[in-house]
Specification:
The chain is mostly helical. 63% of the residues lie in helices and 5% in strands. The chain is globular, with a radius of gyration of 27 Å.
Length: 535
């Protein structure tokens, strides 16, 4: 009965049967505690788990390998890495299952370096161990390491399966590494890896997040089976790549096919409406969440509506919507209003939104930087100085810009400022000089408002040319064959000047440039951008 209920929809009932065992004067065995531990992990209860651990110690089952690995898994589910390490440290000769459990625990809790140490010291490694380590890297944002380990896995002849490839596609998505993603796609076709719903969804997501939406939709329509996550991923990809007008159409088809949307689906639909300014359509979908589907909107959905109004210039409605939220507005909602205030040069509302963000998160660097930009747009350098002093006093630092570009399967990183670390820096600098010269001949005048210093315009232009995406574009121009699109992933939102410059470069150099910033994709071609200045 304990085993049956541990695998049921009401696993907590096993404790009732455990109590009956004790009342009947029968002794629980190691299998009993194995199920108790596994169920405690499933319930993720901070009270139940430690109690079960204490009880199995009392009955002398602390050396049973099944309960040992189960305890590590249980504490990992609770996020208690220190307890995981205590259990593991007490095992004199941990078997492969326990080693895999501690590796998973470390990766899940973000300690991938320790997980890799365990991995490297294991005398034997099966596909489960390799998958766990690759997944750990991918989940922690160490995508390069994930892909490096995947290549090592192949070199050692370890059988690759669906689980491995889901993590690989996730890593490619994070880096925007389309070439490696294409190679991985070809690999699963050659190796005849079974295309499950999870793998197909990961593949579609990879193409979408690498800016190849036509290929993403080709994967989508080719899937024999699609679940709500597949549909949500396709909707999210369309929104991110600027095809927001297609989101309501795809959503309608999804509903017609009998797939019930969830909260993630609606975030994708609302973002799609936002990027193309479909305000009324977005509001209808927001209302339908509760009215038609019984889904209670969460903070992220409310933030989407604020963004929807704000990007359309309806700032009063955005503020009114925030003030009437049924829960305390979060930094995301105020951040959307702050960005809209900057876009439409509403200093008073921008100051209000910035204060609200700082009240919630006093170390949120975006709030300070955007407010500085609002002041700089109006050449109010005293205000800029006050914000900078406030940041300094609170120890808040602006996140440095970082742009990533993939060339011949290798990922290159560029940082804003005087980053001379790249081996081809001198060639990049020469290309930047050529770009600057050709831009000026084309009549380009720098938009220096993003530079937050009261300095001469010439110095500001020089500072702008040290933004990370400009280094990446220059590297792309000297490294990629003519006609090959330049694909860049940036960790921050693209500034106005870089946006204008990239449009011009796409025209002057006759090159398609695709930039994924922290908010969306920008597809630059022939002097135009897919966002149409709406980001």
């Amino acid at each position: 009965m304990i085993r049956a209920y541990s695998k049921s929809s009401t696993p907590s009932k096993i404790f009732h049967f455990y109590s009956r065992i004790l009342r009947s004067n029968c002794n629980p065995d190691n299998y009993t505690f194995n199920f108790l531990v596994r169920t405690s992990a499933q319930l993720a209860s901070v009270e139940t788990g430690p109690s079960v651990h204490a009880t199995l110690l009392k009955h002398g089952f602390e050396n049973d390998p099944h309960t040992q690995s189960g305890l590590i898994f249980m504490y990992a589910e609770l996020g208690w890495l220190e307890e995981c390490l205590k259990v593991f440290g007490a095992i004199s000769e941990p078997d492969l299952v326990c080693q895999t459990a501690i590796l998973n625990a470390c990766a899940k809790c973000g300690e991938v370096d320790y997980a890799r140490k365990v991995f490297d010291e294991m005398p034997e490694r099966d596909p489960v161990v390799w998958n766990a380590m690759i997944a750990g890297y991918a989940q922690c944002g160490k995508s390069r390491e994930a892909l490096g380990l995947f290549h090592l896995m192949q070199m050692e002849g370890v059988r690759v399966n669906e689980v491995s490839m889901v993590s690989v596609f996730s890593a490619c998505s994070h880096l925007g590494a389309l070439d490696q993603g294409r190679w991985a796609h070809a690999y699963i076709e050659r190796s005849k890896v079974r295309m499950t719903v999870a793998l197909g969804t990961a593949l579609l997501d990879m193409y979408a997040k690498c800016g190849n939406m036509s290929k993403a939709m080709e994967v989508f329509w080719g899937m024999k089976e699609r679940n709500v996550y597949t549909w949500s991923s396709a909707l999210g990809g369309l929104a991110m790549n600027g095809f927001g007008e297609k989101c309501p159409e795809l959503f309608t088809l999804m509903v017609k096919e009998g797939v019930r949307p969830n909260g993630v689906t609606f975030v994708s639909v609302l973002r799609g409406c936002t990027v193309v300014g479909l305000v009324e359509e977005g509001c209808r979908h927001f209302d339908s969440m509760r009215d038609l589907y019984g889904i209670e909107p969460q903070l992220e959905h409310y933030g989407c509506i604020v963004d929807l109004y704000g990007r359309a210039g309806r700032l009063d409605e955005a503020l009114n919507f925030i003030n009437n939220m049924p829960m305390k507005p979060h930094a995301g909602a105020w951040g959307a209003l702050l960005h809209a205030s900057r876009m439409y040069r509403n200093m008073e509302l921008g100051e209000h939104a910035s204060r609200k963000i700082v009240e919630l998160e006093d170390r949120n660097h975006c709030a300070y930087v955007l407010l500085s930009n609002i002041y700089a747009d109006s050449k109010l350098y005293e205000g800029v100085g006050n914000v900078r002093e406030n940041m300094k006093a609170k120890g808040v630092r602006k996140l440095p810009g970082c742009s990533v570009i993939e060339v011949d399967g290798e990922v290159h990183e560029f940082f804003a400022g005087e980053d001379k670390s790249h081996p081809r820096y001198n060639e990049i600098e020469m290309m930047l000089g050529e770009i600057s010269q050709r831009l000026k001949l084309a009549g380009y005048v720098a938009n220096t408002s993003p530079v937050l210093f009261d300095i001469e315009e010439e110095e500001k232009e020089d500072a702008l040319f040290k933004h990370s995406e400009k280094f990446a574009i220059a590297f792309g121009l000297i490294s990629l064959r003519e006609g090959v699109p330049i694909r860049i992933v940036k960790n921050l939102r693209v500034c106005w000047d870089c946006h204008d410059v990239t449009k011009l470069i796409s025209k002057i150099f006759n090159r398609e440039i695709i930039v994924r910033d922290r908010n969306r994709f920008h597809h630059f071609q022939n002097g135009e951008c897919s966002c149409k200045g709406y980001w």
